[in-house]
Amino acid sequence: MRNLSRGDRGKEVLDVQTRLRGRGFELGREGVDGFFGPSTELAVRSFQQERGLVVDGVLGANSWRELVEAGYELGDRLLYLREPPFRGDDVLALQVKLNLLGFNAGAERGVHDADVERAVIDFQRNAGLPLDGIVGESTLVKLEAVRKAESGREGKKIPERDGGFVPARSLVGQTVVIDPGHGGADAGCVSAGGVAEKDVTLALGRRTAELLRAEGCRVHLTRERDQALALYTRAETANAASADFVLSLHCNFNESPEARGGACYYFQRGHYYSEHGRRLAGYIGGRLARGGPFIGRFGRNYGVLREARGIAVQVEPLFLSCPEEARAAMRPDRTEALARALVGGLADYLARASQREGAS
Ligand SMILES: [Zn+2]
Predict the structure, then answer these.
(1) Ligand 1 centre and the CA of 138: distance in Å?
(2) Which CATH architecture has domain 89-150?
């Protein structure tokens, strides 16, 4: 589906409006009229805010996916392990219920993966149900009954998304997937002077890969040239490589040319966040801060952060809307400094992680 934004009209807009209204978002006087006007844009922005997405009022691939997933309630469809996996708020609700009852359904990502299936079968065994791993009516009824009996005992520890992760001491032997954002027809954001995000992320990704390989890492790039990638391809590359770490690279953009500096993001959805992702974002941020302004680290529900199984962070080292930062963005010395900050942050994370382990 093409990106939808202010001024668009047609059946796709009608679909979006219907879904937004179904989620309780106000469409004002315009209503469901198939025209993407100011009220629709406001509703899209509110939805993006609520779901931890980039709040830009544009309905791109990630927002569209969230909007579709938001429409599923537990019980709407049979859930089981399949490829591609079921994704949606119904899966998320299932995970939350299972986790609250102490069955480890993994990170609350809303993706029905092998962790969820294991927890479902575990629950079925406990409840005396057939062990088919299918979440249908009998399993849901039982789940609700147990939940009622257990109510008041909530607050059990939610399993860490990076469960089982053993910190290593150094970069040697680590598998790192670098994901240069955008590519091909999707240029990402473009500075007033014509610098495209897809080129900045590719140059930075390539140089970072070289430096990491020199440190003894196994490195995969999701793209090595100017090419478009489908929504899930990036995370699938990371998962196929069994990535220990995923570095997703983007640039920032703001209406104000004054906005500047780096920012790092880790996976967060509602109350759930990746502890290790947050730490790694902090260490990379610490290194970026040595070379210029750094805004901070933030929890976000971005596609790659959610879907990748390794410790994933998204790094936006600069604003292409800031003339000064945009001018420097493709300069080799700037690329070099940023690549070194990424590698240094990863090394810091690994060194501290092993210290912590040694101290306990
Ligand atoms: Zn981007």
Answers:
(1) 44
(2) Orthogonal Bundle (1.10)
